[in-house]
Amino acid sequence: MLFPNAFARSVDSSAALDLGTFEFIIRSGRALIYPVYQGTFERRGNVPPGRSGQRDMNLQWAKDVFRAVDYLATRPDVDMQRLAYYSLSMGAYFGPIPVALEPRIKTAVFASGGFWYTAPPETQPANFAARITVPVLLVNGKDDFTVPLADQRRYYELLGTPPAHKKHVALPGGHVPQDIRGLFREVLDWYDKYLGRVN
Predict the structure, then answer these.
(1) Confidence class for position 64, pLDDT limits 50, 70, 90
(2) DSSP-derived secondary structure for 62-81
(3) How many angstroms separate the CA atoms of 138 and 19, rounded?
(4) Cα–Cα dist 85/104, whole Å
(5) Which is nearest to 24 in space by CA: 157, 188, 190?
(6) Which of 78, 118, 127, 74 is nearest to 100 (CA)?
(7) What are the DSSP E strand ranges found in 89-185?
(8) Over the stretch 121-156, which tens digit does the pLDDT of each residue have?
(9) Which of 35, 13, 11, 41 is nearest to 22 (CA)?
(10) Which CATH architecture has domain 2-195?
């Protein structure tokens, strides 16, 4: 399951998907679902201002993830024991909420992840991080000006996942690592380890 970066909030149509951020997963032989989340692509609209608007958006995004997982459960060609969450930037910021609350998600990758403390406590993703117990891979750029190394470490430390099953990798580059092949390798190796190899 993919949760996109903020690009999805600025484009009118999902026909403009940025395949470069996730196509490698499909090419590896894994299925991928990319829901059109509230506030993105064809579902764009004005987000109410302030903390209540951010709260409502986080709630709606969580519902969208849960509905997508419900849909996948109806598909005989989907192995629900091998369901992963993959996200980039905005999706990695938001990711602790659905990953903590949806028990059918078995592992998560948060790429370019960090926290922005704009949401009220009840929907602040950082407050859900300690409730995550599944394996988590956090991949960032070493020179990320949006999420500096200290903030990346804090994100990693907040995760409730046992230390043996969480990993932080800082690759060369900024907010999106310059070593994109390195990012792809880390993600696919993680999925092979925790979901099993693709036949």
Answers:
(1) very high
(2) HHHHHHHHHHHHT-TTS-GG
(3) 21
(4) 10
(5) 188
(6) 127
(7) 107-111, 136-141, 166-171
(8) 999 999 999 999 999 999 999 999 999 999 999 999
(9) 35
(10) 3-Layer(aba) Sandwich (3.40)
How far apart, in whole angstroms, are the C-alpha atoms of residue 188 and residue 104?
20
E strands present in 20-177? 84-88, 107-111, 136-141, 166-171
Give the whole-angstrom CA distance, residue 132 versus residue 165.
11
The dihedral over CA atoms of 89, 158, 170, 36, expressed in degrees to the nearest 10, equals -20
> Cα angle vertex 181, ends 180, 186, to 5°?
100
* Dist. CA 61–CA 67, nearest whole Å: 10
CA geometry: angle 103, 28, 14, nearest 5 deg: 75
103: three-class secondary structure by DSSP = coil
Burial of 121 per CB tally in 10 Å (0-12, 13-18, 19+): exposed
| Residue 115 near residue 151, CB atoms below 8 Å | yes
3-class state of residue 94 by DSSP: helix
Query: Whole-prediction pTM value?
Result: 0.93
Q: How many CB atoms lie within 10 A of CB 20?
A: 9
Strand order in the sheet with 136-141: 2-3, 84-88, 107-111, 136-141, 166-171
Q: What are phi and psi of 62, to 5 degrees?
A: -60, -45
